[in-house]
Amino acid sequence: MKVKTISGAVSALLGTLAMAGVAHAGVIAGTGATPSSTQLGGTDAISFKVAEGQAGHALLVPYFTAQNGQMSVLHLVNTDLDNGKVVKVRFRGANNGDSLLSVHVLLSPGDVWTGAVTAGADGLAQLTTTDRSCTLPHLAQGVAQPFSTGRLDPAWTPEVMAANTREGAIEAIVMADVPQAALYGPNGASQSVLSVAIQQVKEVAPCSESVLNAALMQDTSSEAVAASRGLAAPSGQLSATWYVIDVPGSTTFSGAATAIQAINNTGLPARGNYMLFPPTDTAVSQPERYTADPLLVSAGLATRNKDAQGNTAFPTTAAVVLARYNDLPDLSTPVYLPATADSARATAGDLSRLLAVREFKNQYVLDDSISARTDWVVATPTKRYSVAKDYSQSDPSNQRVYSLVPPSGGGEQYFHSLNTQVRDGVCSRGGSWSFRMGSRDGSLTPESVISDAASQPESCGALSVLSFSDTRSAVSSSVARKTLQGTFSNGWAIFRMPDARGIPLIGTAFTKLSNPSATPGVAANYGLTFPHVVKAP
Q1: N or C: where does the chain have the smaller number of CB atoms within 10 Å of the terminal CB?
Q2: CA distances from 359 to 129, 202, 238, 465, 499 (A)
Q3: How many angstroms separate the Cα of 334 from the Cα of each of 17, 193, 341, 467?
Q4: Confidence tier at 471 by pLDDT (50, 70, 90)
Q5: The Cα angle at residue 511 between residues 257 and 509, in degrees rounded to 5
Q6: What are 155-169's pLDDT values in tens digits?
């Protein structure tokens, strides 16, 4: 189990500020020893922790795909037996981390929600669920909800847009708890109407539309109002697993989501800020209080040039993309800090530091006798909060838009003008990552930098798929794939990056094998997944 925490030197002070009851629309620091009909429960989180194999306040899934007939399935599990959860589930595209679909999932205590991503007849990815847990907007059982292309590059053809909805990453964020205890009603002795609406009765939750709308469709900056709706500050306790089924290839890959915990001053999971935003397209005033996303913040708060020390030039003259409630919360929304622009950038910086690595390594298999193929997924969940591509600009020199992550005084920037370049998305600078391969018998290639632009492995956009064969891909990636030339048929490889503070990334190796001797009735295809082994800065 890997447990990694950020330094608490500054966060303790900031956590005190968060506890002072500063409230902004959608982000409220809770008060009170326990939740009640007037208080959300005290926000005591002061920091983040990444803990594999545990539940958390936010969950990261490095990859989903619906390419080539594949299906990706997400399982969300509420391990909290005392509180329901209001969870924002968001699917982001591989190329630029653009939002493709988001939905509020309401889990009762001990509840599980499942949803599957497939390709529709029109080529667009779509989300389908047969689950009976409540969702907002409502997802009818068995009725596919197409992904949106509204945030993708308008210059792409419809075919390219559709392909770019079929690969990406998933994030799930607990926005609020729903206490099950009898704390509400005229005498404070009844369950909230929201708790009753999301609790299954004979395996079916009522999901009363009027109750869900009253609790979730209106924003508030008042703790008392939020609490009266049956909501409380989020305590985390959410876990998730995922799997990818290659339907034509009869293969399955699976894994667990990376858990991010909001923790208190003893390192234990804690309550974070209430940060529930309505699932609507209403425009957000001063979105920089809630997100570091450089495409969403107001004029002048993002720039088109930034060096490693955070010196900036050419600020934006308007928000590149109009921020809407549906965009929030995201991974940079202040969980334990007051809702300010600096806090959003600090939140993104804190999480980036937790995920930062200087090198990553894993195994690969290319054995022809078993038709082996290996792809490595390299996902950068927090990159979108440092840099993103502005599709409205035709000049590549103006297409990168930056936020200060970490904020001024927080040290070197994770992504800046000198370590990024523009290709289909914003990529790490080509020819900067070093690469070394080893065989199973201990032979090693010299450490080298790949100069061929077509084979350079540096990550692009929100995720890249590094394939060890130009003819065989384990996950059939089409929009995020880069081909590496393997020296050995089976072995391992290591990538190193030059940036002293590292690059925030997570990922997994996907290996597919076929048994040529399989007899009728015996499974012939096998899928294996291995998380990357990483070295922190």
Answers
A1: N
A2: 38, 50, 29, 16, 10
A3: 12, 28, 9, 36
A4: confident
A5: 40
A6: 999 999 999 999 999
Helix (H, G, I), strand (E, B) or coil at 454: helix
The two beta strands, 83-93 and 167-179, are antiparallel
When pLDDT is cut at 50, 70 and 90, the band that residue 188 belongs to is confident
DSSP labels for 86-127? EEEEEEEETTT--EEEEEEEEE-TT-EEEEEEEE-TTS-EEE
Nearest to 103 by CA among 140, 66, 55, 49: 140
Contact 53, 256 (CB under 8 A): yes
Contact between 490 and 367 (Cβ < 8 Å)? yes
Rounded CA-CA distance 462/474 in Å is 19
Calculate helix-pair angle for 341-355, 11-19, nearest 10 degrees.
Answer: 140
Mean pLDDT of 424-436: 92
- Helix, strand, coil % (nearest 5) of the chain? 15, 35, 50
Q: Are strands 525-531 and 503-504 parallel, antiparallel or unpaired?
A: unpaired
Q: 107: which 2 tokens?
A: 């889990």
Residue with the two structure tokens 């010299």 = 446
Mean of pLDDT over the chain: 92
Cβ atoms of residues 57 and 44 within 8 Å: no
What's the longest Cα–Cα distance across the chain?
Answer: 74
Q: 515: which 2 tokens?
A: 């048994």
pLDDT of residue 55: 98
Adjacent-strand bridge partners of 460: 427
The CA distance from 101 to 135, in Å, is: 13
Dist. CA 474–CA 246, nearest whole Å? 9
Q: What is the pLDDT of residue 187?
A: 85
Task: Please name which of 132, 140, 227 lies closest in space to residue 184, comparing C-alpha atoms.
Answer: 227
User: Hey, what amino acid is at 404?
Assistant: L
pLDDT score of 18 more than 60: no
pTM of whole model > 0.85?
yes
Q: How far apart are CA 452 and CA 443, in angstroms?
A: 23
Question: What is the 8-class DSSP label of residue 201?
Answer: B
Q: Which residues of 287-310 are buried (b: 16+ CB within 10 A; e: fewer)?
A: bbbbbbbbbbbbeebbbbbbebeb
